[in-house]
Here is the input.
Amino acid sequence: MAALDLTRRTIAVIPGTGKIGSRLAFQYAKAGLPVVVGSRDAAKAQQIAAEISKETQSSSVKGLTNAEAAASGDIIFWNPAVKRNFQFLLSDSQVR
Here is the structure.
């Protein structure tokens, strides 16, 4: 069986600003994959993304809100330890 090729896939880590999420995002960026760090606070996500970019010398890391990260990721890693509403994963047309 062939290995899964992730090189053209964007990895979204939600939330990506805590210890677990940021470390996971760091490892994917270090491996050369495009990464989106999600957070309720876009500025915090951008700060973590900038730190990861600097440490990994990757230009493929960006920070967005959780909803934006979920929409832009081909593969989404959600930290199950974080007990928050998943409603942002739905499109605007599905949210009432």
Observations:
- The chain has three helices and four strands.
- The longest strand covers residues 35-39.
- Strands lie at 11-14, 35-39, 61-65, 75-78.
